[in-house]
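Continuing the series of single-chain predictions for the mutant panel. This is the parent chain; the variants come on the following pages.
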Amino acid sequence: MSDYANSAYDPAPLQGVLDQLAPQGRAALLPALQAAQALYGHLPEAATAEIGRALKVPLAEIHGVIEFYSLLYTQPKGKTVLHVCTDPACALRGGEQVLAALCRRLGVQPGETTPDGAYTVEGAPCLGLCDHAPAIWMGQKAIGRVDLQSVDDILQGRGDHPITACYGETKYLIGRCGKGRATTLAEYEADGGYAGLRRALSLSPAEVIAEVKASGLVGRGGAAFPTGIKWEGAAQASGQPKYVVCNADESEPGTFKDRVLMEEDPHLVLEGLLIAGYAIGAARGYIYVRGEYPAAYQAMANAVEEARQAGYIGEDVLGSGYGIQIELRLGAGAYICGEETALFESIEGKRGFPRLKPPSPTTHGLFGKPTVINNVETLANAPRILLQGAARYRQLGTEKSPGVKLFCLSGDVARPGLYEVPFGVSLRHLLFDLAGGVSQGRRLQAVLFGGAAGAFATPDQLDVEMSFEGLRSAGLPLGSGVVMALDETRDLRMILTGLARFFAHESCGKCYPCQIGTQRQYEILRRVADGEALPGDAERLADVGWTMADASICGLGQTAASAVLSALKLWPELFEAGNGKL
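Parent structure:
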């Protein structure tokens, strides 16, 4: 029976949505699909056909998009979908056991739906709740610190949204965080909010860019590209219109800083985006929020509306003559969309495949126009820089790494949470003095830096300086700010297998080195973790890893083996044949 013949499908509500979205054409494809899924619980063929007609997108291409994103469904799911995180931070705390317990309780296997259609249970990649591991995402609600005894409570709707503890020797970025709710516009303004934007509007765009360049601010998403130079490149590029984009697709396992900023201080992020837009002359901005962050998306949406009504967004911002409109996009489950060009493709209504570079986004970005894209934490630094000036900003941190940094501490640490410190403190100070050391009084075995795409530090590196230059000299990545502690009881082979599984699942498949390499890496590590390593497996892992690093198109494949290569160097005995499972 066709969907049109199915009484459960009523095209009228979808038509109202499409009437609003149709003028955007293909760029509205992802919002249209998400709206249809919200209406019907999945994407019936009739609904996708109607979307194709309204947006003038071929049905075959629509199906290509649907199949690319893990949070879009062509088949009915349960009324409530339970996403159980099984990535490293949650796996350390029993995420796999929670998944198994929920499946037993409901009589299903992972990925299946209960006969009554009430629940679907799925394993999930990192949900950005690493400080509250193990975590689940239930419908639109995040629940942390789940244990086997709380399964029934969860199914009955009990469980609060986790509140991340925010610590720091400075509180430039997290001063309004830690209360478990979004800061309102009135609260933000009372605390000096939007004063940075006001000062920016009193300067020329070139003067704003000069201030940011002088501050030494670099990207906080992992690439560490100088922010002012990026803004200058887009400002000087020919072509109109220009776009400014906030990359809020935070998906790196172990990372949750951007989620906290968006959920609890959304106007700080928005103010930074508006400053960037003014600096480059952008008439439109986009905020692309990770699909697994519905609370953050809603907080940012509310902030945008508040700011629009207050005159911070519109055709004439605060009477300055500068105009900008801001639009939100919600991702649909694809780690690769954290890569800037893949994110552009997603906004444009396509599969999130990364583009070849050059050209760079500053000249050929979103819709082929000059674009600045910055991550959430990067933008959150801009208001203070513009308000207080570059010289004062540089008083914190080191000469080569000025300012402050947010670190996400998780794993076997006594006080997990979000930590703000000036660049230059030691790992020892961060982990032991501020975070209380290793939990349960155990000894430290290793620290995973940078998330799944990171590398391991050992206890003899505790005095490494937490700065770009300090970590670089130690062969460690700063990355997105992940600091995941692993105590002496952890089997590192299981950790590595979990990381490899993540990359094998998240590879977009555009280039063969990554598509095939991540699968081979996972297969070998799974064998090693099961105590069945073969002679030569260490060499195979190294060969696969360096091939991906050298030949992959984007950063996903180029760093998919980083942690494995780090472990091969530090603990070669883990990969030897005959070394039984711990």
